[in-house]
Design goal:
The protein is an alpha+beta fold. The chain is built from six helices and eight strands; from the N terminus they run ββαβββαβαββααα.
Length: 208
């Protein structure tokens, strides 16, 4: 069913201009999920397991954050986040309807959502995406997210992405992935001494 059949919820705060006629509207979690539930058939072409029953327990308590993406007075998509753990926000559900993709909206949306989550006090932002969903993976990697794992669940094969507001932890993730050598504050927190940081110690070679 199309999105023209129901009213757009009122904003909890002023809309943010995303450019190109798009705007981001903060709404309640319940309002965002009501829209997502109604439009998910248009937004997603992927296949997830059909449980054919409601979950037995409520989602764990924690902060909620939700926005609608608007264009021409109608819903073009949404972004829903919630608290994952004591230091992490989880971008649980983001979607753009097909006619609004390929316009750079997602790339313009990301820094705004990240700024809100940072202001809330989170240290990390986590998300899961289909491993072939380049339309989301590439903008997120360009925005500074790091690939931190792969998993399979009822949605299929998923890439786990993490964004850190702590620059030391960002460097730490790169060190742990083998992208760079430990140095500076990362090396100090790993308990590495100067001898361990020499090129010969790192690559296994012997001094001449």
């Amino acid at each position: 069913m199309g999105n023209e059949a129901f009213p757009v919820p009122d904003a909890l705060a002023p809309d943010t201009d995303l450019g190109g006629g798009y705007s981001l509207r903060p709404v309640t979690n319940a309002e965002a999920w009501a829209v997502a539930d109604r439009l998910e058939g248009e937004a997603y072409q992927s296949v997830s397991f059909d449980w054919q029953a409601d979950a037995p327990f409520a989602t764990p308590d924690g902060k909620r954050h939700a926005w609608l993406i608007l264009h021409g007075g109608e819903v073009a998509g949404w972004q829903i986040s919630r608290q994952w753990d004591a230091r992490t926000a989880y971008m649980i559900n983001t979607a753009l309807l097909p006619q609004h993709r390929g316009k750079g909206v997602y790339s313009r949306l990301l820094p705004i959502v990240l700024d809100v989550l940072k202001a809330e006090g989170y240290t990390l932002v986590r998300s899961h995406h289909h491993a072939t969903n380049n339309a989301v993976l590439i903008p997120k990697l360009r925005a500074g997210f790091r690939l931190q794992g792969m998993e399979i669940d009822h949605h299929g094969m998923l890439a786990v992405l993490i964004y850190s507001f702590d620059p030391v932890y960002r460097d730490y993730m790169d060190v742990r992935c083998g992208l760079k050598r430990a140095e500076g504050e990362v090396a100090r927190r790993l308990g590495m001494n100067a001898a361990e940081l020499t090129p010969s110690a790192l690559d296994g070679s012997s001094p001449a």
